[in-house]
Design a protein that fits this description.
Layout (H helix, E strand, L loop, with lengths): L1 E6 L2 H10 L7 E6 L9 E2 L7 H10 L4 E4 L3 H4 L2 H7 L8 E2 L3 H8 L1 H10 L7 E4 L4 H9 L5 E5 L8 E4 L2 H13 L10 E5 L4 E9 L4 E3 L4 E2 L2 E3 L3 E4 L4 E4 L6 H21 L6 E10 L2 E8 L6 H5 L7 H10 L13 E9 L22 E4 L2 E3 L5 E3 L3 E9 L2 H12 L7 E2 L6 H7 L1
Parallel strand pairs: 1-2, 1-4, 2-3, 4-5
Antiparallel strand pairs: 6-9, 7-8, 7-9, 10-11, 10-16, 12-15, 13-14, 15-18, 16-17, 18-22, 18-23, 19-22, 20-21
Helix pairs in contact: 5-6, 7-8
Catalytic activity: 5-phospho-beta-D-ribosylamine + glycine + ATP = N(1)-(5-phospho-beta-D-ribosyl)glycinamide + ADP + phosphate + H(+)
Keywords: ATP-binding, Ligase, Nucleotide-binding, Purine biosynthesis
Pfam family, one: GARS_A
């Protein structure tokens, strides 16, 4: 197969790394890719949202399968665009059409979908700028803390957890009246705060059947002990001890099945990944959010645990025959530590050369915000620069393999959290 993968982050490097292992992979292109994908695939200088250029490339290179990594091209309607073109109307694409992508593109849409299909989630109300007074009055009746979510895509930064009524009111005004998150906060979902332990569950579906991939827990905040600003993710662990067989059975029966059935019932064409952000509240699962693609950095922890042919699964998703695919998962632990530029998630200097260990590292190194400079040296070019994944029979072994590799990589002002997985280790003792 000739494959075109869209995206440029750590998730896409992990996808490329896994797909390249398949004997069915003839040529693998990544648009636009990064310095890591360039080592195992052919990078293409086309933006993931330049639909006409992507369409032409697909024709020129006789692409057999398109795999969409990030959410933006999905929400903007890439799949619908390819379906509307005669030559690519039947091309297998992994990623939902724009209606399915609205599950991530609009928090209000996804909450209404959950309610219609009986999927357990937090109580909520949605407000627009002309409903600001109703929104402020609604806040006064809620218990604290309270969650405010920008309705649209806000690069993982559109969720605020407000501890006081004053903070909630001023934040709601900033979001609705001052466009704190731009167009994304032209509607705001005000949601009940759920207490418990968060985890991410990943589902592959062809719209009819589904496979539940390994679950993971990610670490969102910049500081150790889950303090400081939210980021795109500072690390991940898979599997997680609080998602045992009994809990995952509840997830499948109460959340996965009603979601997949709901998509079919509402005629939402969905061939792709569904990332379900969950809260384990006293042993019961509640949905915090849907995303319409794999998570990052969870992908870098999840994919190394898949032992069956990943490309075969992607093709089965795109073709609509996922029920014939046999998913095999390793019982090993997999842990990912994200190395970031100093200053992230705020502003940060870039262009510093990265030094890597000599010899074979104990962890797998996935590139995210990297590029080669004029001298051919790898440099930091983004906030999240590298994701390092360690595997092991135990969580400790996996963490040791990840951190021994992290500690052997350096660049000016590098930062990473040193406590990834420590909370799970405590639960296991």
């Amino acid at each position: 197969m000739n494959i075109l993968l869209l995206g440029s982050g750590g998730r896409e490097h992990a996808f490329a790394w896994k797909m390249a292992q398949s004997p069915q992979c003839s040529r693998l292109f990544v648009a636009p890719g990064n310095a890591g994908t360039a080592e195992i695939a052919e990078n293409v200088a086309i933006s993931a949202t330049d639909f006409p250029a992507l369409h032409q490339f697909i024709l020129n290179e006789k692409i057999d399968l398109v795999v969409v990594g990030p959410e933006e091209p999905l929400v903007k309607g890439l799949v619908d665009y390819l379906r509307s073109q005669r030559e690519t109307a039947k091309l297998p694409v992994v990623g939902p059409g724009s209606l399915g992508a609205t599950l991530e593109g609009s928090k209000d849409f996804s909450k209404r979908f959950m309610l219609r299909n009986g999927v357990p989630t937090a109580a909520y109300e949605t407000f627009t700028p002309d409903q600001i007074e109703s929104g402020l009055a609604y806040l006064e009746k809620q218990s604290l803390p309270i969650v405010l979510k920008a309705d649209g895509l806000a690069a993982g930064k559109g969720v605020l957890i407000c501890q006081t009524l004053e903070e909630a009111k001023s934040s709601l005004k900033e979001m609705l009246l001052e466009a704190k998150f731009g167009e994304a906060s032209s509607k705001v979902v005000v949601e009940e705060f759920l207490t418990g332990i968060e985890l991410s569950v990943f589902v592959a579906t062809d719209g009819k059947s589904y496979k539940i991939l390994p679950e993971a827990k990610d670490y969102k905040r910049i500081g150790e002990g889950d303090t400081g600003l939210n980021t795109g993710g500072m690390g991940a662990v898979s599997p997680v001890i609080f998602a045992d067989e009994d809990f995952m059975k509840k997830v499948e029966e109460r959340i996965v099945k009603p979601t997949i059935d709901g998509l079919a019932k509402e005629n939402i064409d969905y061939k792709g990944f569904l990332f379900i952000g969950l809260m384990n509240k006293n042993g019961d699962p509640y949905v915090i959010e849907y995303n319409v693609r794999m998570g990052d950095p969870e992908t870098e922890a999840v994919l190394p645990r898949i032992e069956s042919d990943f490309l075969e699964m992607l093709h089965a998703m795109g073709q609509g025959n996922l029920d014939q695919y046999q998913l095999e998962i390793s019982p090993d632990y997999s842990t990912t530590v994200v190395m970031v530029s100093g200053g992230y998630p705020g502003s940060y200097p870039k262009g510093f050369p990265i030094s890597f260990p000599e010899g074979e590292p104990k962890g797998i190194i996935f590139h995210a915000g990297t590029a080669r400079n004029s001298e051919g040296k790898l440099t930091n070019q983004g906030g999240r620069v590298l994701a390092v994944t360690g595997k092991g029979n135990t969580l400790e072994e996996a963490l040791n393999n990840a951190y021994s590799t992290v500690n052997s990589i350096s660049w000016n002002q590098v930062y990473f959290r040193k406590d990834i997985g420590q909370d799970i280790l405590k639960l296991m003792k």
